[in-house]
Amino acid sequence: MRRPSLALLAAVLAAACGGGDPTGPTPTPPVTPPVTPPVTPPVTPPVTPPVTPPTTAPDTLPALRREFRGVWIATVANIDWPSRNNLSMAQQQAELGALLDRAQATGLNAVVFHIRPASDAVYRSTLEPWAAMLTGTQGTDPGWDPLEWAVREAHRRGLELHAWFNPFRAGNSSDTTSRLSPTHVWHARRDLVRVYGTQLWQDPGEPAVQDRTMAVMLDVVRRYDVDGVHIDDFFYPYLQRNAANQIIDFPDSATYARYGAGVARADWRRANVNRFVERMYREVHAVKPQLKVGISPFGIWRPGNPAGITGLDAFAEIYADSRTWLQNGWLDYLAPQLYWQIDPPRQSFTALLDWWTAPAQNAKGRHVWPGVATYNVRDLSWPVTEMTRQVEATRALASRGPSTGVILYNGTTTLTWNGGTVTNELARTVFGDRAVPPASPWLDATAPARPTVTVAEAAGAGGAREWTLALAPGDADAVRWWIVRWRVNGAWTQQLVFGEERSFTVRPGATPLDRIAVHAMDAAGNVSAPLRWPATTVLAAH
What we know:
Protein name: Glycosyl hydrolase-like 10 domain-containing protein
Keywords: Signal
Pfam family, one: GHL10
Structural class: alpha/beta
């Protein structure tokens, strides 16, 4: 994730996953996390999102809002989680659970969880060592599996979880003497790793590197019930300079001599990245056809696209031909990092979003869910209303693609900073209603059958009525989510319930509900017709 250096890490990091000036990169952060970052301030509870008001005929079920609302949770250098590298398992789980609680309360429906920061693992792996940010020492078992826990807890809260990988980053050159585990690629296959300035990088031109990265990704896809896989903007490294301020070229001359076959080196490097992206998309779907594959590249493909845009040339400098990936449909969603405001013409959020969503770039009709820089509310004192304006800008282009959506960076700024400044505003305004993740019809366009639901009414705590729903699929199509909706005083409330659940209890409080509707949704986002209760009174509109 390319971004300005975090204020809370300024004393110990030159940068964290990106750069300060939007036109040029800064170094990747150290893999060894800071020991004593400041304590996160108390979080004010978010404003309770309002239920959908009664805007339709008395017995009409409102249409579902389909929108992706995600947040990145970064683990490299303990940016978002865990806050320190010496916490107990219980403390780590409490922190991660609080972030997930906050995401749910804000009206989000997905988290993008960083599980492979630098050729290491935030989950139990036989292929790569445990990440140092968990215990302070790379390769040390933390005593639990954070990814397994996060998947379960996210689903329990109605949140998708996308596993976020860095495909080629391997660490920092200062780590090579003692900080890297014996099982890290630097020790296990040093022939594949290049020292580039202050960084260690697996060489994308080495076929064995691409094989290793795909093995890691497919291992996660097979063993964990994630909803998507995700890579960000680190392909070839952002350029570094030496002491004489000269650009350092990536040291892949030997690799190029073996595999370049007379192609210009820049074209060969882009072809290496393209080959990996296409392979990732194809092989992930061979294992799980409905799993979403997402990429979050630098927000500008090339300067001048659209006219007037200036900044870093990701096509030429990090060999990321992201427009080609979108044009060829080698992804299910693109999340270009549009970390600029709407108004400045040199890098305008709306100008770039308009370009990315145009048919010339997105003829395949893939999802485009831009990355939104919530961290700049803190770091650059942007007004929080800039965030709501950017969400509204994505909705204004809804006709351009199959869906709207955003992913917010970074997790702690979005969810907890300053007592919840960002989330309170989002929950009060643009995320005041609940949304269901959009459908991806190119993966599967067949909706599940209407579910079978039995409703049992009973007296709950304090005498308030409650309704327990027994949930069953209507056919053999696997249910990924139940969409449960109920009406109280003419207003509808909605909850996503994970598809493995077979029972859900609605507790509306002192005022009893009078309508219930349940849809089944599969992993590709196809939604069934509703099961209606009472059966003769709820009209379908979904």
